[in-house]
Each structure stands twice: as structure tokens, then as C-alpha cells.
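Q: What would this chain look like folded?
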Amino acid sequence: MNPVVVPSRWPALLVLCAGSLMIILDGSVVAVALPAVQGDLGFTATGLAWVVNAYLVAFGGLLLLAGRLGDLLGRRRIFLAGIALFTLASVACALATGPAVLVGARFGQGGGGALAMAVSLGMIVRLYPEPAERARAIAVFSFTGAAGASVGTVAGGVLTDLAGWRSTFLVNLPIGAAILLAAVRRLPAERGIGLRAGLDLPGALLATAGLMAAVLGIVGTGEHGWTSPRTLGAAALAVLLLGGFALRQRVAPTPLLPARVLRVPGLVAANAVQFLMVSAYFGFQFLLAVELQLVLGLDAAATGWAFLPTPVVIAVVSLGLAGRMIARWGARAVLLAGLGLATVGFLLLGRLPADGGYLADVLPAMLIFGVAGGLTLPAVTTLAMAGATDADAGLASGLANTTQQVGGAVGLAALATLAATRADGLRAAGWAEVAALAGGYRLAFTVAAALVVAALVVTLTTLPGAGPRCPP
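A: My prediction, written as C-alpha cells:
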């Protein structure tokens, strides 16, 4: 079947990828600049975490609503609004004169990022209705997300050293303006099904508030612990709000999350696999970055470069192979292969000694994760969007992105807590500092391997078979 608006498909995809790359790069770029931000604006150690947390709360909480708004109002309109808000909020970050202004602007960035990212996959589904072409397009889009964080670590260090931390935000102004101009010209206009189809405002408020409460509780566990009144209170509030949302969906005339969407074959299973998989992957990215510095003794710049093999391999696999493999053998088979490789990679890190070396002990895992990420991310996204109709593609896209964000937050918080608790126990048993840290990280990576194995089991037992295959 020929796609709609054939001449603009690939330029449109590049615009969507550019928007995704700017948003994802910003997260890792900002992480590198945090020490400079603290020194300049006078953040406390506790307050500094909110430079990251404010973004995550807004981003994770608004994705589902943003996806539905794309279906109702038109996905291009929501994408443009998201990029504009993200760009303006970036300028506000660069001009911030104190902690409160910066945290508020970061919340705005998170809202803009949610609007743009939530509808991107929905637009790809519309642009590429033919399965083989769609698989290749999703592989390209997935690459920008997988590689962006690693590239951002290097870019953040360079920008901060050369031009100061404000440049890490200000650079988004010309990039965002260029994306807006290109989006107006290249993205196909969509009317949406209209607000008369029903927004379900009470459901939207319950879902957004519940997701924000859940993310707020998760991101605070590193500071307050899993059993603190603050964490338990946020969790209870999230359960109450999301439970109310579920009840609302049963009685709402036009529910935000219609039951028909959840009945799409494989959608719930694909999101469950993505939750488990991303929970482990976030641990790889952040915990290994800390271990390379605290255990193996690399500095911040060397750590950034140490991660470079992974996005390079992801690029080769996702851009050159994954789409063709999905078209030939089916997304489920490709996902299983990638999950198997990811398990091997985590098990390699689960034996990393305190006196290990990068080339012998880390690089093999980096290369394996590059292949695994290049296969699993496009495959699971393809499965999550496989049954999305034009009317619900934005909602399915928002749901997939929400699963990814919440899964990453849960996984990182849980694995970091496991690593710290294990290290504390080893110190108490008389282990040296570096050895205790290494032991903690080994446990965390072994548990990450178990999460990937669980994702593999869910894939085998609940996801539909390979399904129809397309000629490469």
C-alpha cells in the first residue's frame, strides 16, 4: 500500500527525529552541567536534584494526555506547540537568575518535550502505513533516542567547559527554531478528530496527576528512601489517582484511554516488555557511568568517550539492519534475539572486577549493548504501535512513551538502591571502598539481567507470533 503524501515522508521523518534528538540530548547535556549550575545559582544538594526531577515529573505525567490531544486536535499542531514550548522554556532556563526560576523553566521544558514526543510515533504510523517501510522508519527514529543520551554526555561536557552551563540551554534556541520552520513546511497537516469526539477532562486530570505523583515518588527515592513517609505518601496518592482514573474510564462517555485500545493484540504485552527492558537499560547507562569513574578511575570526559561505541553500533544496527530484519523475520523474533544479547551484556557487567580494565572488561559489553539496543528498541516500538488506528495512534504513542519513562525511572531508582545497599553491607563486612562499590554494581547488573530475562519470557508467552512478513 502506498503511503499518504509520498514526497514528504523522509523529510518529515527527519524533522521528527530532529525534535526527538533535541529533547533527549537535553537530558544528558544538563546532567553533565549540574555541578556548574549548583555553583552559579546556589542550589542546595537537595534542591539540585529538582533540576532533573522537575523535568521528569512534567514529561512523564503529561505524555498520555499529550498523545490524546494529538488525536483530537491534530498531531502536527501538538508537535509544533511542544517544540515551541520546549524552545522558549530552554531560553528561560538559560536566563534563570535563581533556583526557583530554573526549576520552573525545567518543568516547562518537560511539558514541551511531552507534547512533541507523545505524537511523534503516531505521525510515523500515518506516514508509513506499509509494514516494511514503517519498520525502517521506526528503526531510524529509535536510533535518535538510543544514541542521543550518549552523545549528549560528550556534548554537555564540551559546551559547559567552553561556554558555561547556560549555553547547554541556549543552544536549543536556534535548533528549536530550525525544527519549527522545517515542521511547518514538511510535516503533513492533520485536522484530528476534533474535541467534539471528547477529551474526558476529569479522566485527563486524574491520569496526569496520578502519573506525576508516581514519577515524583520514584525520583525521590534516592534522597528519601523507599520506605520514607514521603515516598509512601506519593505512592499512595498515585494509586488513589490512577485507581480513580481506571474507574472513570469505565463510565466516561468518551474515555481518555478507551478499552478498545487496550484490546489491540499485543499492545499491553509490548508495553510490559518495554517497561522491563527499559528498567534495565536505564541502569546500564547511568550506573555504569558512575562505576567507570568511582571504580575504574576514569574522569568525566573519558567516561563520556567510553560510552561512544554503544551509539555507534546502535547506529549501524538500527539504521542498516533492524528494519530489514523486522520486515523479513518479524518484530517478535528480532526482539527475542536482542533481549538474549542484552542478557549476555548484563551478565558480563555482573562480573566486572574492582581492578578491571576498560578494553577487556567493559568494551565487550558496550558492543553487545549496541547490537541489543539496535534490535530491541525498534522491534518493541513496532510491536507497541502495530495495531494503532489513525484515530488512536497519538494515544498509543503517548502510552508507549509513558511506559518507557516510568519504566526507566523505576528501574534506575531500584537498581541504584540495590547497588548502594549491597555496597553498604560489604563495607560493614570490612571490604575496601572500591571493592564494596564494585560488589554493589555487580548485584545491580545481575538484577538487570533478570529483568531482561523476564522481558524475554513475556515476549515468548504473551506477544503474538511473527505475523505477516514483508519482502525486504
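Residues 200-255 form one domain.
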